[in-house]
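To assess whether the prediction recovers the assembly geometry, we first specified each molecular entity separately, as shown.
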Amino acid sequence: MGDRPLAEDDRVALAKQGDTRAYGTLVEEHQSIAFRTAYLITGSAADAEDAVQEAFVKAYRALGRFRQGAPFRPWLLSIVANEARNRRRSAGRRERLALRVAEDPLSGGAVPSPEAALLDAELREELLAAVNDLREDDRLAIACRYFLGLSEEETAATLGWRRGTVKSRTSRTLDRLRERMEVER
Amino acid sequence: MTELERSLRLLGDAVAFPEAPDVSEAVQRRLEGLRPERRRPRRRTLVLSFAVVALAIGAAMAVPPARTAILDFFGLRGATVQRVESLPTVPTEPAPGSELLLGEPLPVEDERLLVPAALGRPDAAYAAEEDYGLRLTLVYGPGDGVPRSEYTGVGILVTEFDGAIDTRYLDKMVDADTSVEQLTIGGNRALWLEGGPHFVVFRTESGDIGEDVGRLAGNTLLLEHEGTLLRIEGQIDRARAIEIAESLERD
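The predicted structure of the complete assembly is given in tokenized form:
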């Protein structure tokens, strides 16, 4: 590979030919969002790491089936989500992951950005509690759209839903969150 | 973007995700000697019906008799239906769409897919390499008079099992609420299951139930077509299911 990073399409094409270095750059680029996606589903960092590693290996082997020119991230995330669900299922884990706010930079979690600090701390806790109380699918839709910043289309591919389902579920859930926040205010 | 959506985005920045571990080296190590797979040839294993029936009875007998008393029994190559007094406890919740084990997405124009022209292009298609062979799944969302199935979370689910279903096979247990009818569609054998929920499992020869695939299913047509075993599931009636089955074509 040259000095300038190749476009994603080109790296995918190389990886399809068996270029593991080109594939490695895709791993580096997407592993962070892949991990967060898996973590939302498994609720365990260790399971999420396993799922991500397995998904990257499976995705590599399945590259022959990947349509050249299609966006790589949603395709990858759908494999990640599938691996994560398999792990959660085989772990027999039914309890829900309760997301929490990173207050302390030493806790090992993400440090809130200055913008995030603008969100009133009390409101933040209330909103997160409301999100944590959602049904699993509703919570996943909200988390994919707003916490991971995935588009509607990417969320649909990742979770294996139709785009219309993502749209309607997100909108219904936002209404519900809005109602709850109004009641609590 | 509404104020709530803005707040959710800001909240996302503050959520304590564990730090993502760097898996690139581990992945690189595992890729050694691997290459992206080319399309594989279709594997076809013809299993005589009686052989499967014998195997199925063996497997069924391995289930503790207290749990399932087998009252009746139907066989279809690669698939069996057992009538039992009561359904076993379902190990998974009635599955919303996201809980289906669908495998990896594949383009809906994939040449391996048998697509029912009556339904048109699926909304999504998946492939999963299982121990018994390749499993392809077509997903159709609700609409056009097809409601969302409470079992699959989608409108119609078409699952295609290819190749060697001789050591593991699709197995359906039905209770007294479900009617089972033998049909012939385009010269092929088929079974129509209607009424109560069915329990879908995969079993090994030893009678072990695949723990990760047990789930409830709604109205279902099981049929053989060109050496493939198909399962068409959804809240549809018998006539519609037959119409779908008759319109199957290789894409």
